[in-house]
DNA sequence: CGTCTTTTTGAATACTGTCAATTTAAGTGG
DNA sequence: CCACTTAAATTGACAGTATTCAAAAAGACG
């Protein structure tokens, strides 16, 4: 595995919004309990990524993003649903994917606070995948039509949206390579390092975290069976790279884990 | 393999522009030998996909897309190059991908006439992959900045660009699934059926065609070794699904090939 | 005509998947 | 609170598939 490639994987978290502490109660307007002014939201500046200007944020207020709570196991949108919103995760964890006709599910991504879901719906006007909460979560629903309107009046805003989409392309690209040419150990290492980076970028610990998804879900995402995921966790533990207790992970040798990615230059 | 999924793969050619016979010589303006008026180009209506209005086409003329010939083996753009253009393939075949640090290459897509390349560059302002011609080819270079400008003034145009990008997301999505959960036979069947569909959509024969890429390139794309690709071709031939003569393919049992995709419901 | 590349095929190996059993944790209801 | 049920995770044994290594055949090209 080349360094360039591992960087591509590590530097390509799901579409990022930067970190996002949950909004405090006083940020809410009493009149519209499910809406929040973006300029009063803690996401401010951090929301819609990388250099959204103040004036843009003020424009966003006009949209009055609807906030919503989603309970663990609930589905935010389903494959085939009309595409109206993109969703910014404020807190909690989601998985996206689709149900295959034979009942199995194919997981296509995991999303944590500060990341954007739903951009795949732009193509067909309906969602190409479903999004399910892996724990109680909160989201902002951003009406895509408004975003389009906003973009028409503001080239900077359009750039932001375009970049978000292009980033999702790049993200899938990375995953593709991962699935195309990596061993089970490399896949799991890439997954853990990517997850670790994303948590770190949002102010959480990079070295110790709790996975909200099952072995089967990780396996589906990585193109492995759940038994293989479990075995690989055990193998990493024996190599003293991790301490694993069910879904609680402590990375004890970050460098070693990275090398597990590079080790495939044989 | 579910029907829904196979359809997703089949219905998701690389970003599509519909078919496009090569422009006749008289379409060229004598003053600018490397530029063509879009409204005079055979790509007209068919260019930028699915419902581009006449007025949009007229606007496009303002861009005066530069045409260019690319010789077999030449690289149109490289990973890391500044992102300025997206490229519409007018004729010929391209592969996209990147060179891994250890020298191996990772192929991420194949593009034929009427398809768009380069959208992955929007994210970072530089290309995330390289594009190489697999045979002599012609392309239109579309300045992305102009497209953005145009989009600002025209919501319809913006939609078109957004849809193109979202489609690329969906395309990668399909490939991802393919790499994540399919056997060698299923992968090659999916590849051939997808290719066949794309050729058909552009007016070529769906049942008989010439592959412009090597076994190694197909393998890289599908996450298989070249030997496995070769063996799988042979297997399909023995199953009387194909007639294979090196790169010349004749599909003798389209239904059977499709069933090879669905056969994984075990 | 000879060299180089691509493709095909064979044999042995390695890895992941499959099947099955066990352990652990988390609920559920008496 | 405990027995019972259910779901998740771990581990072992074995099978199946793709990879690796190697060699030969077939074109492509100068």
Topology:
The structure is a homodimer.
Chain A: H1 3-10, H2 54-61, E1 66-70, E2 75-77, E3 85-91, E4 93-99, E5 105-112, E6 116-117, E7 130-133, E8 137-143, H3 144-153, H4 155-181, H5 184-201, E9 208-210, H6 215-222, H7 226-238, E10 242-245, E11 248-251, H8 254-262
Antiparallel strand pairs in A: 1-8, 2-7, 3-6, 3-8, 4-5, 4-7, 9-11, 10-11
Helix pairs in contact in A: 3-4, 5-8, 6-7
Chain A binds a DNA duplex (30 and 30 nucleotides) through helix 7.
Give a verbal description of the structure.
The structure is a homodimer of 266-residue chains. Chain A is an alpha+beta fold. Chain A starts with a helix and ends with a helix. The first copy, chain A, has helices spanning 3-10, 54-61, 144-153, 155-181, 184-201, 215-222, 226-238, 254-262; strands at 66-70, 75-77, 85-91, 93-99, 105-112, 116-117, 130-133, 137-143, 208-210, 242-245, 248-251. The first copy, chain A, folds into 2 domains: 3-176, Jelly Rolls (Sandwich), CATH 2.60.120.10; 182-263, Orthogonal Bundle (Arc Repressor Mutant, subunit A), CATH 1.10.10. Chains A and B meet through α1, α3, α4 and α6 of A and α1, α3, α4 and α6 of B. The first copy, chain A, binds a DNA duplex (30 and 30 nucleotides) through α7.
Concise structural overview:
The first copy, chain A, is an alpha+beta fold and 266 residues long.
The biggest sheet of chain A amounts to:
4 strands, antiparallel
Largest interface in this structure: A-B, 51 and 51 residues
In what range is the share of β-strand residues of chain A? 15-25%
Give the domain tally of chain A. 2
Rg of chain A to the nearest angstrom? 19 Å
CATH-level-4 superfamily name of the largest domain in chain A: Jelly Rolls
Task: List the uncertain runs of chain A.
Answer: 1-34, 49-53
CATH topology (level 3) name of the largest domain in chain A: Jelly Rolls
CATH architecture of the largest domain in chain A: Sandwich
Q: What helical percentage do the residues of chain A reach?
A: 25-40%
Oligomer: homodimer
| DSSP, total strands of chain A | 11
Strand order in space, largest sheet of chain A: 1-8-3-6
Listing every helix as H and every strand as E from the N terminus to the C terminus, the arrangement of chain A reads HHEEEEEEEEHHHEHHEEH
Could you report the average pLDDT of chain A, rounded to the nearest whole number?
Answer: 77
Number of helices of chain A: 8
CATH class of the largest domain in chain A: Mainly Beta
